[in-house]
Amino acid sequence: MTVSLLVGATPVILIVDDDEVIRMLMRQFLEGEGYVVVEAEDGRGALDKVAEQSMDLVILDIAMPGIDGPEVCEQIRTTMSDPPPVLMVTALDDEKSIERSYAAGAVDYIRKPLRWPVLKNRIRYILGSHRAKQELEILSRNYEMILDAAANGICGVDDRGLISYINPAALHMLGYKNEEVRGEHCVDVFKVSLPGSDDFSVDCCPFFTRTDTTVTVCYDEARMLRKDGTSFPVDFRSTPIRQGQRLVGGVLVFQDVTERQEAAELIRYMANHDPLTNLPNRNYFRRRLPQAISLAKRHGRILCLLFIDLDRFKPINDQFGHGVGDIVLMQVAQRLRGALRTSDSVCRLGGDEFVILLESTETLEGATLVAQKVIESLNEPIEANDHICFIGASIGISVFPNDCSDAETMLRHADIAMYEAKKKGRNCWQLYEPLIITPGQSSE
């Protein structure tokens, strides 16, 4: 069955009356007005006609033999998915029949004898209203299809805060079924917490309770509870809907930003970690060292920095290739981690250079013990791709506040001490001493 009520289509009107003269007069009048007219002489014939062809309007006599007008009207309304409007016609001054007609679904009624100007304008009004209703329904269905296909969660609430619409994306994110949330109050379904808080009692639609009912609420990087009690990060927007000065509802839009947060975290991690060893890198160390010095100064503690340069590493790269060299570096990183307490940290500055920051050591002897432990650990042979590799380590030690007062000086002093350890024969540690002559400098 096709709908004839389209832009440019001529409306089709069904006349139902057991009086042949009335049908003839109405046909002549309606065709003169440019309508397509179909006739039926009784209720059964009317039902057959509307089943065969789409009608834009049914003009139906109330009093007919067999199935009367109100009963025909009710069957049209209850058996069709998109029933046409029904205009009742009566010669009776019978209030009960008119009430039955409205209860059956008639949109209006007109009395006999017919006054043609009244009928003309009544038909024009009914057809215009029905056309507008159909176009609004089509538009609404199109909008709903768009909302249903959206990746963001979208929910509509009425003026009492009750959920009137929720799209599949929102249901999927929250773990609900449609029937579980439709008609429920929004604050019972949308449990939101602000960044850094575990309080999920934030009002998702505050414009219902605030004096200012015009402001859109935005919660970025918030968290929302699922039905099962787990939570996920969201960007959340809640916008009031107003008609004139009256608040009539709201729209809630939210986006799961888990992937975005994970991507940002990965970028931060990659910016601060060495991709080969997964140790913190130079970028991380240059931010961490000043913080550690500030903390040590505040608590009156010493801070020790060990600058480590591997011995005999370059020949491994030259002889066995960089693949073997990379395995050796990964093994070195693992051994360095194993030599430290959780409060201490190790970083790879680049190449075969590493640093260890000892924040929990209370004495200088503690730092030298760690240095010796590192040397002994790295003296153990390393197996890499069927090759047995032997390396060592030269370590320079700088101590705050004994020999430095800032991060740049501390790193430079540890580097100087490391070169002195190499000059002493490698595979040993050396404390920074002010009288140590740096390579390339004179003793004058």
Describe the structure.
The protein has 444 residues and is of the alpha/beta class. It contains 14 helices and 18 strands. The chain has helices at residues 20-32, 43-52, 69-79, 95-104, 116-149, 168-174, 178-181, 186-189, 258-272, 282-299, 314-320, 322-338, 364-379, 407-423; strands at residues 12-16, 36-40, 57-61, 86-90, 108-111, 153-158, 163-166, 192-193, 217-225, 231-243, 246-256, 303-311, 345-350, 353-358, 382-384, 387-389, 392-400, 429-431. Strands 7-6-11-10-9-8 form a six-stranded antiparallel beta sheet. It has a five-stranded parallel beta sheet with strand order 2-1-3-4-5, with helices on both faces. α3 links the parallel β3 (57-61) and β4. The protein is rod-shaped, with a radius of gyration of 42 Å. The termini are far apart. 30% of the residues are buried.
Condensed summary:
The protein has 444 residues and is of the alpha/beta class. The chain has helices spanning 20-32, 43-52, 69-79, 95-104, 116-149, 168-174, 178-181, 186-189, 258-272, 282-299, 314-320, 322-338, 364-379, 407-423, and strands at 12-16, 36-40, 57-61, 86-90, 108-111, 153-158, 163-166, 192-193, 217-225, 231-243, 246-256, 303-311, 345-350, 353-358, 382-384, 387-389, 392-400, 429-431.
Lay out the secondary structure:
Elements: E1 12-16, H1 20-32, E2 36-40, H2 43-52, E3 57-61, H3 69-79, E4 86-90, H4 95-104, E5 108-111, H5 116-149, E6 153-158, E7 163-166, H6 168-174, H7 178-181, H8 186-189, E8 192-193, E9 217-225, E10 231-243, E11 246-256, H9 258-272, H10 282-299, E12 303-311, H11 314-320, H12 322-338, E13 345-350, E14 353-358, H13 364-379, E15 382-384, E16 387-389, E17 392-400, H14 407-423, E18 429-431
Parallel strand pairs: 1-2, 1-3, 3-4, 4-5, 17-18
Antiparallel strand pairs: 6-7, 6-11, 8-9, 9-10, 10-11, 12-14, 12-17, 13-14, 15-16
Helix pairs in contact: 2-3, 3-4, 11-12
